[in-house]
Design a protein that fits this description.
Length: 1033
């Protein structure tokens, strides 16, 4: 195998399968320089192409050459580079005809060989289904080979055979030795690009390519990505790794962008930190005084990213090279906002302590040039924040400076600069002043990518089977000669890019794997959603039609119909959506008169008039073979027609791998309250995709509804274990449901134990646990009843931590903590009550039973036994961190200030102060409890506070004169006040003799008796007051 003469790398040892990092890097570098068409003309390459075509055209594994390892790696890298050049970066290669001819010739030979074999086996040659052995037929076989778990790639990917060829050489075939070292990184790239080809645009405003993985349900491929990523990480980042530092940085960036696409925020952040550490890159989001608007007189703090690169020893030390070729950055042209922030040069610098030393004193608008990998680090940081942070104005302000720092840098790689413009456009779409430039800049980037990745004279245009290239908008001229001469030339919405704004394929492909660069159909889909954000639904629909993304067309029409009334512009949108889906899935109905005359155009995706087709015209048999993404189309049709049979058919077409079909079927059963059927559907869904927190969560809800508490607990635990965010599970709801499942499971175990004991008491026989399902499951898992209750408390505490403002979850924490045996979790009770009070801010949040429980626990041991002192040594203050100290803080600082009309808390505080030997406070709390009981107004409340409390209905003065329960409370508080006067009044410093306190007690009793004589005289409580009065004489 020949390598470019510029790559001075020894290939000694390649025959044995030993691929050193230097050799692989040299191959990757030359892959973007060599002409793939010439490379495919070599004998070794032709043998590999023949092996690939035989594998594609046969249902069984064909024999593959095993002595062409180095040729396979080199050709695989070149094919992948050519595929990415044709679909992601551009510019279009001009030897596509030579490339197609090689694959076409090999395909024709394979077809002839199969026809000969069929004839020798007694089969007619006409029975072979592939009669047209052209490049389109080969591509029609390549596309299904990428289907995974019922999800198909975009059906109009140009040069799809190149990716399948690279995947065959580097992953699926046995050409490469199993023990070959340093190839895990290549396998990881192939699996990741395979995943990117399967990702579907999400129907939502602000839809991002980096978020599309959330709607892509291909668990099988995700496992392959995780496995190959781990193998590559061990190879590249190990302490004895032979990969150069630059490659290690690039790998960490690829890993970070992969984890972002998969939705793993923590892992993406960790990989990005590793890249920053290896690079020695220092950056910080800081602030500097400046002006943003044209009419701003005073400078205010503006966010800015300060960054400085560190030169690696292996890198050249050449000076700045100046800005190279880069796409055009559109001007803002706003009458208020400046093009760039004008920073003050005479402003006070940021304090040195808040910035790393290399960044101190750096001017925001005069920063040093960054290395290209460091620019990617900034863009990855922005993408990470944009993907996982809430979409609010503060987040957007924090993300924009990262993109601006790269755009304003002195030297930028073409692909990096394009990505920076993309990131900036996504941010500006959310601001009214910049939304116009955001949309147009995204349009400009999309135009250049489309023009640069589309053949000016596609070979397939002359093919009778039609072109697989994405159709584009062509601007025609009134002059027929001019129009004819330019019909095959790609055009753009905005003026075409200048030659100075383009770059070579090598420069564009250099960092394509480290960037989150979307394929061109994803970029156009994002552009379509950008147009919808400014109200141009027609433009979005035209883009989707041009891309032939019929599921998106249908969903867009259905969404428009749902968001507008029946007389609005979206009228009939759902019917149009249903017609499109049926058109793609079914043949025409017999007797579809309108289409009898236009039968040649019904199956033509380019010329079909979707406004004229009707759902009733497509009730014929299913298309054979099914169209790409048939499971998804059937599921969408099921959503529109609310028909379970469509979901079942989607499940069957996908070979029982499309989890979304069972999920949708389960939701339909839930709407009809068919709980068991919904449970079965979701069990099938999680059987296919065991890494989806959403599916496990929903299954747990169903199990909880059916009373299958052990199964519900297991489902919620799986949801938490497979979650990607920091808190575990989707949110606090998952943890709360897990706590409810454990609590219900505990109650069932206790009830079964009680039933078993009752049976044993009756017949004196030993009963096993066969009929005790919950107990048997707990025994199998080694969980006792007390352990289940403890697990429930742990889950509720975690839920309360995540959702700190939900007082009901904290109330569950209090209840379960008090139920623990043999000793309640008093610390958790205190914590829960404190949080409930801080959330609700009202005395209705008082749990008197729990407060009494805490008080009983604290005061069960007299202070004298704790301190070993006599009783007249002052107020006792418990040590910090003890339960007594926590309870005192709770009652004195959380409960007391919130008391308005409830006398019970004051009574508890009086008891607590008495235990502390705070006798003045004891009497004061007893008086407040008594006044609150008889008037509904604590003595500590101001007149204004009382008036507000009365307006809210919180104070009801005089209720005890008519309410027997309130009368009991008044008598109880009066008795407690008399006891406080008698026992502690004389101990109050300066309080006087006992006779003085007896007089006050008599006054209190007489006051109550005077008011309550008419309604309550002669009753039991009345006699209690008379006895108190007799004792005080």
């Amino acid at each position: 195998m020949e390598i470019d003469s510029n790559a001075s790398v020894s290939l000694k040892g390649l025959a044995s399968g030993a691929f050193s990092p230097d050799v692989l890097l040299a191959m990757e570098s030359t892959a973007s320089q060599n002409r793939l068409g010439q490379l495919l003309q070599k004998p070794d390459s032709r043998e590999l192409v023949d092996s690939f075509v035989r594998d594609i055209t046969s249902n069984t594994n064909s024999p593959t050459p095993t002595n062409l390892a180095q040729a396979a790696v080199h050709l695989g890298l070149a094919s992948l580079a050519a595929f990415l050049q044709a679909n992601v970066t551009g510019p279009v290669f001009d030897d596509h005809g030579a490339i197609e001819s090689v694959f076409t010739n090999a395909f024709q030979l394979a077809i002839q060989s199969r026809i000969s074999d069929s004839a020798e086996g007694g089969l007619a040659a006409e029975s072979f289904p592939l009669k047209d052995a052209g490049i389109e037929s080969l591509r029609s076989l390549c596309r299904p080979s990428l289907d995974t778990d019922g999800v198909s790639p975009y059906p109009h990917i140009p040069y799809i055979e190149l990716f399948c060829f690279a995947r065959f050489l580097l992953v699926t075939s046995n050409i490469l030795p199993t023990a070959a070292e340093h190839l895990a990184w290549l396998r990881f790239r192939i699996h990741l690009w395979h995943y990117k080809l399967l990702t579907q645009p999400s129907l939502a405003l602000g839809s991002l390519y980096t978020k599309s993985g959330r709607w892509t349900d291909v668990a099988t491929l995700e496992e392959l990505i995780s496995t190959s990523l781990e193998e590559a990480r061990i190879d590249v980042l190990s302490t004895d790794s032979s990969w150069p530092p630059e490659s290690q940085i690039v790998f960490c960036l690829e890993e970070s962008n992969c984890q972002i696409l998969l939705g793993n925020e923590a892992k993406a952040r960790e990989a990005l930190q590793n890249a920053t550490r290896l690079s020695g890159f220092i950056y910080a989001l800081s602030g500097a005084l400046g002006k943003r608007t044209r009419f701003q007189e005073k400078s205010f703090s503006q966010l800015v990213v300060l960054a400085k690169s560190q030169q690696l020893p292996s890198e050249p030390t050449d000076g700045p090279q100046g800005r190279g070729a880069a796409p055009s950055a559109l001007a803002l042209n706003d009458d208020t906002l400046l093009e760039k922030i004008q920073f003050n040069h005479d402003s006070t610098p940021v304090p040195a302590s808040s910035l790393p030393p290399p960044l101190q004193g750096m001017k925001p608008d005069d920063q040093p040039e960054l290395r290209q990998v460091d620019q990617i680090i900034l863009l990855t940081e922005a993408t990470l924040k944009d993907t996982f942070s809430p979409s609010d104005s503060l987040t957007l302000e924090q993300i924009l400076p990262y993109a601006v720092r790269v755009i304003d840098d002195k030297s930028v790689n073409w692909q990096i600069y394009t990505q920076a413009l993309l990131v900036r456009s996504r941010i500006e779409l959310n601001r009214s002043r910049t939304v116009e430039r955001g949309v147009l800049q995204l349009q400009a980037v999309a135009d250049q990518v489309i023009v640069d990745t589309q053949d000016s004279t596609p070979a397939a245009s002359a093919s009778p089977t039609g072109s697989t290239n994405v159709p584009t908008i062509h601007i025609t001229s009134d002059n027929p000669i001019t129009a004819h001469s330019s019909v095959n030339k790609p055009t753009s919405f905005l003026p075409a890019a200048k030659p100075s704004e383009s770059a070579t394929a090598q420069e564009r492909l250099q960092y394509v794997n480290a960037l989150a660069s979307p394929p061109r159909w994803h970029l156009e889909s994002e552009l379509a959603y950008a147009w919808t954000s400014v109200g141009s639904l027609v433009s979005a629909l035209e883009i989707f039609k041009r891309l032939r993304l019929w599921p998106e067309v249908a969903l867009c029409l259905a969404s428009a119909a749902a968001s507008e009334d029946s007389s609005g512009r979206g009228a009939g949108g759902e019917e149009k959506a249903r017609a499109i889906i049926r058109w793609r899935l079914f043949e025409r109905s017999s007797g579809a008169g309108e289409y009898e005359k236009t039968s040649d155009n019904v199956d033509d995706e380019e010329n079909i008039d979707i406004d004229s087709i009707r759902p009733s015209d497509f009730y014929g048999p299913e298309r054979s073979p099914p169209p790409p993404n048939a499971p998804r189309l059937f599921s969408i049709l099921g959503d529109i027609e609310n028909d379970a049979n469509h979901y079942i058919r989607a499940w069957e077409v996908s070979n029982r791998r499309f989890a979304r079909a069972q999920k949708s079927l389960g939701e339909l059963h839930l709407q009809n309250k068919e709980w068991d059927k919904a449970r079965q559907a979701y069990k099938l869904a999680v059987g296919v995709n065991r890494l989806s927190p959403e599916l496990w969560n929903r299954l747990g809800d169903i199990e909880l509804r059916l009373g299958h508490f052990p199964d519900a607990a297991e489902a919620f635990q799986r949801a938490i274990a497979t979650a990607n965010d920091k808190v575990g599970g989707e949110d606090a709801r998952t943890w709360s449901n897990l706590g409810s499942a454990f609590l219900s499971w505990y109650r069932e175990v206790v009830a079964e134990a009680k039933t078993r004991k009752e049976k044993m008491d009756v017949d004196d026989e030993t009963h096993d646990t066969e009929e005790m399902a919950s107990t048997k499951r707990a025994v199998e898992l080694g969980r006792s009843a007390s352990q289940l209750l403890q697990d429930s408390l742990t889950a509720f505490k975690r839920a309360a931590t995540v959702a700190g403002t939900n007082w009901r979850i904290w109330d569950n924490v209090i209840t379960i903590a008090a139920s623990l045996k043999p000793v309640p979790a008093y610390d958790d009770i205190v914590l829960g009550m404190k949080n409930v009070l801080n959330i609700r801010h009202h005395e209705n949040a008082f749990d008197i039973e729990m407060l009494t429980l805490l008080l009983r626990e604290v005061t069960k041991t007299p202070v004298e036994k704790i301190t070993h002192t006599i009783s007249n040594r002052g107020v006792y203050e418990p040590a910090r961190g003890t339960l007594a100290n926590k309870v005192i803080t709770l009652l004195e600082y959380e409960v007391a200030p919130r008391i308005t009309a409830n006398s019970a808390p004051w009574a508890l505080i009086s008891r607590l102060r008495a235990w502390q030997r705070d006798y003045h406070g004891t009497v004061d709390a007893a008086e407040k409890a008594w006044r609150t009981a008889i008037s509904g107004e604590p003595g500590s409340m101001l007149a204004a506070d009382i008036a507000v409390a009365r307006q809210r209905g919180e104070v009801k003065k005089g209720d005890w004169l008519t309410d027997a329960e309130e009368w009991d409370t008044v008598v109880q508080r009066t008795s407690e006040l008399v006891a406080a006067y008698e026992n502690y009044g004389h101990k109050v410093p300066g309080g006087g003799p006992r006779s003085r306190w007896k007089g006050k007690a008599r006054y209190a009793v007489r006051s109550v008796m005077g008011k309550g004589k008419e309604p309550w005289e002669g009753g039991e409580n009345w006699m209690t007051l008379r006895n108190l009065l007799e004792e005080l004489r």
